[in-house]
Amino acid sequence: MTQQTHNFDQLRVDQVGSLVPPEELKQAYRERAHGRVSDSQLKALQDKAVSDSIRKQQDIGLPILTDGEFRRRNFQDSFSRAVSGYDVPENVDALTEYREVANPFARTEQKFDLVGPAVRTRRPATSRLKLQRNVILDEYEAVEALEPKTPVKISLIGPDRISQRFAWEKSQAVYADLDAFIADVVAIERQMIAGLVEAGCKYIHIDAPGFTAYMDEVSMDRMRARGEDPQKNLARAIKAENDLIEGFDGVTFGLHLCRGNSRSVDPKTGELLAQWHREGHYDTIAEQLFTSFKHQRLLLEYDSPRAGSFAPLRFVPKDKIAVLGLVTTKSNEVETQDALKRRIDEASAYMPVEQMAISPQCGFSSDLELAQLPEDIQWKKFDVLMRTADAVWGHMA
């Protein structure tokens, strides 16, 4: 396999997973929800989009590849589409009421309690969750069939986000408590990861955006209102993330933290406008998180003042890489190499440059229905990341 001998400690340009999807593919997903496009027609478009994207990523020299998450409507489908047991409508993809509204340059409140897809909304369970299809294994094998010359990473939503989006209070006939639910989630995801590792994947990325809820007062107040203790939730979540990856020797695991990737478009200018789901700096939880996680790479949002200073990086252990998400997916403006180098220099006051890498702050899509950057802007942002890495580290391994 392509990844067996790769040293991911030397990977200086990373990516979070999702890429700007072709408009034809987005429209096909919409039509499929209403029965106007067949499964085979959708798959053909997915196959073409992934193949074209892999070719482009290799052509521009990206040192790590993804399938763009073009086989998902939303990044959380890696789990929700893999299991049975959630209480969701039969044709949940046709629903739209739960989606967040545009709120440019401000916090965006998601509609967690409306009926919608599992994990994207807080759905209860009608039976214990069971693995039905190893979504991430299918995605990896489809990319490997293209015989890429560059290593491929696959992303999986982590137990913390899944637990935050589970209506445990409506599920007690199935799960006595959150501990019982998370135990099933970890067991199922370990099955999924084991299949992926057996197939040859050596870099697995865990999406864990919900950890920023533990520094966000609004999110913690919601936990308390449901009868939950945020600190107990946090301790349980850290343990679950570590249990998830335990024992997979020779595999690199990354953990991605962010405050939400929502965006809207200015109707007057057509420019992309930033939105977000949570607020608060890493400072309040950094020591507990960074010193507890067993993941080798920490992918951290650092594209806006909402992230705070680089001071929390002092808690990153010496055997881990901090991947600084310096390039935003929420603006058409392309960052400059000089600006990125200055940010890296600022961060070096708190940790060695040899322990750093750089990336976009989040995926370039995350959800097919989100406002997207123009594809050419996406590639320009990757180009400046690679040129910056070459100037700072002298290679892009």
* Helix-strand pattern: HHHEEEHEHHEHHEEEHEEHEH
Strand content: 5-15%
Q: What name is given to the CATH topology? A: TIM Barrel
Summarize the biggest pleated sheet: 6 strands, parallel
Enumerate the strands of the largest sheet in spatial order, edge to edge or round the barrel. Answer: 4-5-6-9-10-11
The CA-CA distance between the termini, in Å, is 17 Å
Count of discrete domains: 1
Shape designation: globular
Top keywords for this entry?
397 residues; alpha/beta; TIM Barrel; six-stranded parallel β-sheet; three-stranded mixed β-sheet; 11 helices; 11 strands
Would you summarize the structure shown here?
This protein is of the alpha/beta class and 397 residues long.
Structural account:
The protein is built from eleven helices and eleven strands. It has a single domain, classed as TIM Barrel, CATH 3.20.20. Residues 1-5 have low confidence and may be disordered. By secondary structure, it is of the alpha/beta class. A hairpin with a 6-residue loop joins strand 7 (263-265) and strand 8 (272-276). The longest helix is centred in the first third of the chain and has 21 residues, at 39-59. The protein is 34% helix and 13% strand. Strands 4-5-6-9-10-11 form a six-stranded parallel sheet. A three-stranded mixed sheet has the order 2-8-7, with no helix packed on it. The chain has a two-stranded antiparallel sheet with strand order 1-3. Helix 4 (135-144) runs parallel beside helix 6 and helix 6 packs parallel to helix 8. The protein has helices at residues 23-33, 39-59, 77-80, 135-144, 159-164, 178-198, 217-225, 230-245, 286-292, 337-347, 375-393, and strands at 83-86, 106-107, 125-131, 154-157, 203-207, 252-257, 263-265, 272-276, 297-301, 321-327, 356-360. The two termini are 17 Å apart.
